[in-house]
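#lab-general

N.A. 3:47 PM
ok so I finally got the sequence cleaned up, no stray characters, all 236 residues accounted for. can someone with queue access submit it? mine expired

B.Y. 3:52 PM
send it over

N.A. 3:53 PM
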Amino acid sequence: MPRRSLAALLSIGILSVSALVGCATAPGAPSAPEPTADDTTATPSEVRAGWLDAGRGIAVVTWGSSTCVPVAAEPVLAGTTLTVDLVEVADGACTRDMAPRATYVALPADVEPTGDLDIDVTGAVSGRTVLSGLTEAPVAVDEFAPSAGWVGDEQVALLTWGSSGCRPQVEAVTSAAGGAVVTFVEPPADQICTADMAPRVTLADLSGIAADGPVELTLSGGNVASDGPVTVLGRR
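B.Y. 4:20 PM
back already:
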């Protein structure tokens, strides 16, 4: 499984935000002007994290504008501390909301997912968290396969691969045997998407979802393909 390079991740973020120009303001939410130099200083944020992609990557959740999700530069590992520098790539208006948003971070090859990971977030936002190691080595998944990981007691991060300009949006989460069905919003027929293959991380609320053992998610709709149930990695 090849590692995603810094250049690839930055290009993904630029394509993603470019595709949002002209439609970044959510209904009923006031828009903000393009960030100025004074807006680029690091803002303290609560940070959460979860394992994804069979331990080859993580989701880093920070708080800020829901339409301007930062991208990660290539992380640096020193011992058990992973420094993740987040880069704001917005070149258009951002909504003035304060929402959790998730960034995919491809991990260095020597990160062991069964060990705890101290995560130090720098750059556009700053904060720290500790990601507990998995109780056992994750089952390998194919390249570009969907995956999921706990990022809170009731919240999961869902990793899918596809156009960076057309991020999946969760429409509903319903209980099912062994877990839940996550249904995504169907995109408009005339929606134009960038022709790239990028990691897209979507957050889903699993409040009230119970299962004996690991929670499994069935992904449905929104042009999100899955060959079968996706097991949520990590601890609830």
